[in-house]
């Protein structure tokens, strides 16, 4: 059985400014983002992780480093990164204010029906591409750590899309419900070919 701890990075300045925080933009964590990550770190400090892996983006690496700085067995040197865990690339919308494109014909599809989202129209990555690369990571980790405990630090759209589809939810419905909060943790374990969820989007 492989156990996964999926963490969304702490709140960033771009998050607070209500701008798209995609694959090619980044910003530091806010003070509140750091504090929320430190609270999460207290909950995870004794978990015997066999691997800590994050997106290559700064906000994810910063979050992972804070978690490791508070860990009782590991330190920041234990962090590895994988570019396949980066956020969805939103092309022309990268870094722009969300409300500024609310009248774009693809906005409602992006927000509510990702299966209909015409990524090419704004030079963005498709949701199918996101799922392909992130599922590859999980498959490799399950094979390499069949009895391991793994901490993955990634991004909101990545985790929402990946984890909901792994629950059997169709892509069309993955945007329903609340998004993962910043500095939240979702815990799941493998059972055969299935991924079963023990905790969903918990914050502290």
UniProtKB/TrEMBL annotation:
InterPro entries tied to this protein: His_Pase_superF_clade-1, His_PPase_superfam, PGM_Phosphatase
Chain sites annotated for binding substrate: 8-15, 59
Pfam families in the cross-refs: His_Phos_1
SMART domains: PGAM
Catalytic residues identified in the record: 9 (tele-phosphohistidine intermediate), 87 (proton donor/acceptor)
GO cellular component, one term: cytoplasm
Protein name: Phosphoglycerate mutase
